[in-house]
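queue> pop job 88
queue> type: inverse folding (structure -> sequence)
queue> payload:
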């Protein structure tokens, strides 16, 4: 029961080191995951007289998404309405946390089909999910007051992951990766400047995992995961989603 309110990884840290509960933080590298439920506004409107059913649908989505993230090694930080915030690589280190986040994002997208199969006819709304992933240095630790604390992640890496989730609306994509995550992944999509940042960054989208990813000498597991073979079956190559010069745009 207690584990439903406090992440087991955080509990383990507290058992090993009681000082862990003190307010404070440290710098770590991790990959941040933000997701949002597309169609939630329509769902809320259609079910405004059936709040129990609306909560049931949202809880089903949150439950399956959380289980997916946990299975890939994530720390589920918080729920913000229908949004999910998670981090890979904290509190325990996770090798290839960007790769784990990419796998989790793809699996989470697939789960929406099951939610729609169970509820779409009943509620009259087809749901979808937008996901933003960003890798970088961040602050991780206990934030709050003497009465209530939250183990969380903060910083520019986190803010950008949230912005990338929303920027999916501009590109019509389901998953957007930030520059650093994209260097460990694939498919440069555009250069994007989000509100609050002066410089544009290169963003990437994630389409899927080849059934039999090619083995590339001296490549990392993440590159091997996302490098696609050519249509003719010749040597593997990186396939750019938007041929030609990379586009630039501003998302506010």
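queue> result:
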């Amino acid at each position: 029961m207690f584990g439903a309110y406090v992440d087991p990884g955080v509990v383990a840290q507290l058992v090993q080191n009681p000082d862990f509960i003190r307010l404070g933080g440290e710098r770590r590298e991790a990959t941040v995951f933000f997701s949002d439920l597309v169609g939630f506004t329509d769902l809320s409107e259609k079910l405004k007289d059936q709040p129990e059913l609306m909560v049931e649908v949202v809880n089903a989505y949150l439950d399956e998404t959380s289980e997916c993230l946990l299975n890939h090694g994530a720390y589920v930080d918080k729920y913000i309405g229908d949004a999910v915030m998670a981090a890979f690589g904290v509190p325990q280190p996770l090798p290839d946390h960007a790769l784990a986040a990419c796998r989790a994002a793809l699996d989470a997208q697939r789960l929406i089909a099951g939610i729609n199969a169970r509820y779409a006819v009943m509620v009259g709304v087809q749901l979808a999910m937008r996901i933003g992933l960003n890798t970088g240095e961040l602050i991780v630790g206990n934030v709050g007051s003497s009465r209530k604390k939250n183990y969380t992640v903060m910083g520019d890496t986190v803010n950008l992951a949230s912005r990338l989730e929303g920027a999916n609306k501009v590109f019509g994509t389901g998953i957007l990766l930030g520059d650093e995550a994209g260097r460990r992944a694939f498919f440069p999509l555009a250069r994007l400047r989000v509100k609050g940042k002066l410089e544009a960054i290169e963003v990437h989208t994630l389409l899927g995992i080849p059934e039999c990813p090619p083995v590339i000498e001296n490549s990392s597991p993440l590159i091997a995961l996302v490098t696609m073979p050519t249509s003719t079956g010749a040597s593997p190559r990186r396939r750019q989603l938007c041929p030609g010069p990379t586009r630039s745009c501003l998302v506010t």
